[in-house]
Design goal:
Radius of gyration of chain A: 18 Å
Largest sheet of chain A: 7 strands, antiparallel
Strand content of chain A: 25-35%
Strand order of the largest sheet of chain A: 2-1-5-6-7-4-3
Oligomer: homodimer
Number of helices of chain A: 3
CATH class of the largest domain in chain A: Mainly Beta
CATH superfamily of the largest domain in chain A: Electron Transport, Fmn-binding Protein, Chain A
Largest interface: A-B, 59 and 59 residues
Order of helices and strands of chain A: EEEEHEHEEHEEE
Distance between the termini of chain A: 30 Å
Number of strands of chain A: 10
Structural class of chain A: mainly beta
Shape of chain A: globular
């Protein structure tokens, strides 16, 4: 018997993985939130990252054979999570209007402030196909450390109240929702799990929000919210 | 530039990975502490585990093509960590004198009490060679969930004050020790990092310990301890 809840007991951090595609001599960048990342060897340093084949970042890594990792802290701006975790690069250009630092390998990183715990620049040395995902092995060509504790995936779920994005390896489609419900009644975004609670998020009651109000995390419209 | 401290910002849990070897028709079992474990795909469920080629468990997994994972909680008995994390199966039979539950696949698991957060039984479907380590992809044939939070690797280092075992992917050989030193003076085991402190661990002063006293975690002799 397979109890799917068991998979939630594996511990992860939370990172943004970025990469590049060349189209007609022009560079395009994309990035996505990822949790399935671990160090494989230390001499030379190699990190493994599991990426869903349907994600645009997968295509970009296959093209450039390069990827960078930005390890996030608990100070992460939820808008950044919304953009990189719940929007698809197939639909939006995530790096438009952003001013992110560029890695030495020509792949951007996502921020360098108090929401970053470490940065890695990696060059793909091999990969392995596993059903819906590819696990890329990246030899680390640059690693930077910031003296700020990383956010754990458990924190992301419990404190921030977020669901796994649909293409995450840890996604469970969801007779049993992953989201941890609070004590108080509120509206929850069916797309990303963000909980709107008049006492918690703002002093504005749900019915008083403007009609064009959108989810601050994933940008879903009001119709995407359900009373929890 | 590669700052090795950056690798410590990757988040992990802590598990014991077990496997089997057949020798002249007899079963032998071994297991080791592992942190580099993540879920790769959910349909079918596949977990990746990175194992050092020098470890006996690596040989056993290559032979049986099976491995099991016991995900540990903070209630872990430090003797279990000592046995599975700091002793080599090349030197001791780790399952001698133990009474661990047997998995449905014929590979033992390590405990089912309040020190276990989840159990997985896995069948190797593929693997990839990465320098010192092999990353095994295991399709999950059984998964059990226990309603107890997993221990994070950060907790293991900070609260339990432990070093990475020498063959861990996260091992750093160590002009800058990984061990977090406490406020009070004490003796620290050079092998596993266990801190002996008369006020913390017992009421017996270091000099009053019997001469045959050994490290309660890894079994090292008193000579292996240094004043911190």
């Amino acid at each position: 018997m397979i109890n799917e809840k068991a998979f939630r007991q594996l511990s992860y951090g939370l990172s943004i993985v970025t990469s590049r595609l060349m189209v007609d001599g022009q560079e395009a960048f994309n990035g996505q939130v990822a949790n399935a990342i671990f160090q494989v060897s230390s001499k030379p340093p190699v990190i493994a990252a599991s990426i869903n084949k349907d994600n645009l970042t997968h295509k970009y890594i296959n093209d450039s054979r390069l990827f960078n990792i930005t390890v996030l802290t608990e100070n992460i701006d939820m808008e950044k999570i919304g953009l990189f975790g719940y929007k698809s690069g197939h639909e939006v250009n995530k790096f438009e209007n952003r001013n992110d630092p560029m890695g030495e390998n020509g792949i951007p990183l996502v921020g360098e402030g108090d929401d970053v715990s470490a940065l890695f620049e990696c060059r793909v040395i091999s990969s392995i196909d596993v059903h819906t995902h590819t696990v890329f092995m990246g030899e680390v060509t640059r690693a930077a450390h910031f003296d700020q504790a990383p956010m754990t995936y458990a924190h992301f779920h419990k404190v921030k109240g977020m669901k796994s994005p649909k293409n995450a390896p840890t996604y469970i489609d969801d007779s049993e929702p992953v989201i941890e419900k609070g004590e108080s009644e509120g509206y929850v975004c069916d797309v990303c799990g963000f909980e709107y609670n008049a006492s918690g998020n703002s002093n504005i009651a749900w019915n008083d929000l403007p009609h064009d109000w959108i989810c601050p995390v994933c940008g879903a419209e009001r119709d995407a919210f359900s009373l929890q």
